Batch of 3 targets.
Target 1
Amino acid sequence: MTAVRRRLPTLLAGVVVVGVALSAWGAQDRTTWFLETVWVLVGLPLIVLTRRRFPLTDLLCCLLAAHALVLVIGGHYTYAEVPFGNWLRDELGLERNPYDRFGHLMQGFVPVLLVRELLSRTSPLRGSRWLAPLTVCACLAFSAVFEMLEWLAAVLGGQAADAFLATQGDVWDTQWDMFCALVGATVSVLLLSRPHDRQLAARAFTPSYSGAGSTAAAGTSTPGTTRPLR
């Protein structure tokens, strides 16, 4: 493993910390900034604290850092007012700023790989035909929960939650958000499953589920263990 690869998680964490700091500086709405970036504020320390016991693959670390930057940019400007999205809207003649849709695509594209890594390393699903559909379903479920949290924010915050919701006048915004997350998760699984598996194998991660010691090649398992699902 090269020195750069060894330091990659630290470098990515540093980039995210700088991004969070810049995002907080002069954010358009403090409440919206916190609601949009709370996933980063909680997730980054959690990953750092568990990095020795449960180190993540380089691919996943890079994607998580990219997703964090998407979140902090949206938190700084609000998703409906990100300048690049406004530019695209004007150039392409769109009815709304597309950054919100992009954010929800990322909400599926990146977390699905996190779920995939967790299940591959802690359950009998590694190599199973069930792994792909279950990871996609998990991301769709998370997207639905997120939409319910947005609904709760709207009920409690009233007009103050408008910037967080970023519906931009679309009555079908909730459905579009979940659809974008579904598309992002599906595309991620189709494109990244093989390179992700190669990194999991290269890092020689040992599955931690109770059936990890089964003798799959012989088609048998020791008492008290579970064979990987197929």
Target 2
Amino acid sequence: MAKETPREQTLVIIKPDGLSKSLTGNILTRLSETKLEIAAAKCLHVSRDLAEEHYTALRHKPFFEEVIKYIMGGYHPRKKVMAMVYVGPDAIQKVRAVTGATNPEEADSVTIRGQYGRITTKGVYENVIHASTSLEEAEREIKLWFEPDEIIYDLYLTKTVEVTVKKRVWTSSVSSPASKTVTPVSRPIIKKSKKIRT
């Protein structure tokens, strides 16, 4: 009887250059070859705080500012990224195998980075995709990029706390045909229970 491989999870980010070059479909197709499941996905603007926390290990490197500017979309017309959580047996190794080496020039030409990545004249690695390198890194990154309720599985321990948050919400609008003005519905402060990771 074959030994069952434990399920893993990994964070995958299609970076601003991947979105700007309309590579999302191609990248998702390549990732589907892994036979892993997408447990969470979202498009978002990367704040400086999120970028710095994500790349905290590079904080003292001379290229840190370029990496932060890159992930925040500073070099591309599309400023967002697509963040995803993939789950399944050997998720980290399988995703890394199709992703390729961090340096696009060292990545095998059949990998995502080998096919679509480049190094700019300023020396910035535009490698179109990020993938966690270890279980520990995956846990740290997933907890950084996603709230527990954004993931279809309970991957890590959580607890429920009550929080009061102020956030942007969709509005119903009443448009006056004559003036073309829009009157938004008020945006209340929302009080809700929220799961947080421990």
Target 3
Amino acid sequence: MAKKRRPIIEACKQRNNRVLRLDHVELVADDIEWLSATERLTLWNVKVPAGLLARIENLWWLDIRGGSASDLAVARGANNLQYLAVNQVRGMCDLSLVAEMVALRYLDLYGLPRVAELPGCARLLNLEHARIGQLRGLASLHGLLQAPNLRELELVRAINVSETDVNEIIGHPAIEAFSWFAENVPDKIWAPVREKIALPAVHHMHPEEWFRLPEFPAAD
């Protein structure tokens, strides 16, 4: 199987890899030679050796999709991350490493039904935007709401929001916009939450647009 995957890697070596998307490949430690310039990395079911991402000094954007893992050990030491997305990783239940990502500005967690608790985010002074969805096992948003400068909170589809969560959102010193894309969620669950919080809706945009990257130039 590795022989089938390596041609993809060989092609990557010939490109500018500042923005890189890898799909169903297995990386090795020596791949740092062509990954060293990478700033934004999307991994679709990619096997990554321990410590490799920590060696990519320019890496500030990490999008992990698919595959399986119980925690975020793959990202340990990647201390410059401003954007982290974790989407439908089978078995993911431990997000505690997020609490150490002090440069983080945007957090996107989706489709992780085994996550029961969000890490305490009190140290994440730069975290401004969070998008949380399909975390059916989550008991509370409390850990996330400890982020002192969180401005925008987006909920997506099925997620548990307790009365305590609602009160924390209302009383949060920085949250100024709240949205819940409640597809397939009964009105009796999401509507009272939205009514009580009564904040302006988050202006939905692609993360690239939120960061004002070149592919989404700012409107005049």
